[in-house]
Amino acid sequence: MPASREDGGPLPAPAIAANGLRKSYGDKTVLDGVDLAVPSGTVFALLGPNGAGKTTAVKILSTLVRPDAGRVGVGGHDLATQPQLVRAAIGVTGQFSAVDGLITGTENMLLMADLHHLPKAEGRRVAAELLARFDLTEAAGKPASTYSGGMKRRLDIAMTLVGNPRIIFLDEPTTGLDPRSRHGMWQIIRELVADGTTVFLTTQYLEEADELADRIAVLHNGVIAAEGTAEELKRLVPGGHVRLRFTDPAAYRAAARALPEAARDDDALTLAAPSDGSQRALRSVLDRLDAAGAEADELTVHTPDLDDVFFALTGNPAVPARTAPAGAASVEENAR
């Protein structure tokens, strides 16, 4: 029976599934029993500090490195027994550009078309279409060494798409880009997913994961410290609260009596009631205000951002397991 979403519809079949993934280099364990499930047509972001094993995970999932243990399926194919079928289903854009700066943008594209054994006419057509899609037509006849960082990254992804992959691995694709180029890359990724492509993204930019990812996993010390949506992960760490502002001092005092755990600012007539940001927690605050006959003039929900989550999960193993979202692994569960 297929899994179901909260709205009752079936979940997309996993484009990538890994169970018990392990990899060591000498006495250094890089991946220590990693489980991953990436639904088709989504963006999955893998976060982690330098040396956490993000690039190793990408290399394994894209057939570049063999795991020491574990089972992996990519695009419905077994990584161990069907690597060629996996390679036919994927595209990879690494941390370092695969663009050859000595030849033109068009020549880079045609080289990829040859590697994919496309007929000459089809290769030229695909190259022209992708160069136009990535706004590189005007620069197509110039050596790639003359391109800006953002243009090289766009060409890199265009080259990745020559084989029409269903799954794309983007290993820190916006590293070194200026903010404008980074936002342009985000739009490209959104368009790829809108067309049904699955994107496996590694990044050190937490804002990038927050903006793009349907699900996020935090890799630390070779294990998945936590996984969930951005909002679920933000509830993992303390500091969330509901901020209530009043203009009526009497209503403020009534609310303070109803919410004794709330931090008070008597000068500003505001209360900050601890909350994990969930609908249930918000409803509890509102019910207690209603029972006290106190109406706030302004209500805002504040949750920790992904920076807070990242530092808590990778630098503070005391995050309580009970705060983890359903289906997410906590730091305590993975400590071993």
Unreliable parts: 1-8, 316-336
Helical fraction equals: 25-40%
Q: How does the major sheet shape up?
A: 6 strands, mixed
Topology pattern, helix = H, strand = E: EEEHEEHEHHHEHEHEEHEHEEHEHH
- Provide the spatial order of strands within the biggest beta sheet: 6-7-8-3-9-10
Structural class designation: alpha/beta
Describe the overall structure:
With 336 residues, the chain is an alpha/beta fold. Among the domains are: 15-99 and 147-233, P-loop containing nucleotide triphosphate hydrolases (Rossmann fold, 3-Layer(aba) Sandwich); 241-302, Alpha-Beta Plaits. Helices cover 35% and strands 24% of the residues. The protein contains 12 helices and 14 strands. It has helices at 54-61, 83-89, 105-115, 120-133, 149-160, 179-194, 206-212, 230-234, 249-258, 279-292, 306-315, 331-334; strands at residues 14-25, 28-39, 43-47, 69-74, 77-78, 90-93, 167-171, 198-202, 215-220, 223-228, 241-245, 263-265, 270-274, 298-302. It has a 6-stranded mixed sheet with strand order 6-7-8-3-9-10, sandwiched between helices. Strands 2-1-4-5 form a 4-stranded antiparallel sheet, covered by helices on one side. Strand 1 (14-25) and strand 2 (28-39) form a beta hairpin. Helix 3 crosses helix 4 (120-133). It is elongated. The two termini are 33 Å apart. The model is unreliable at 1-8 and 316-336 (pLDDT under 50).
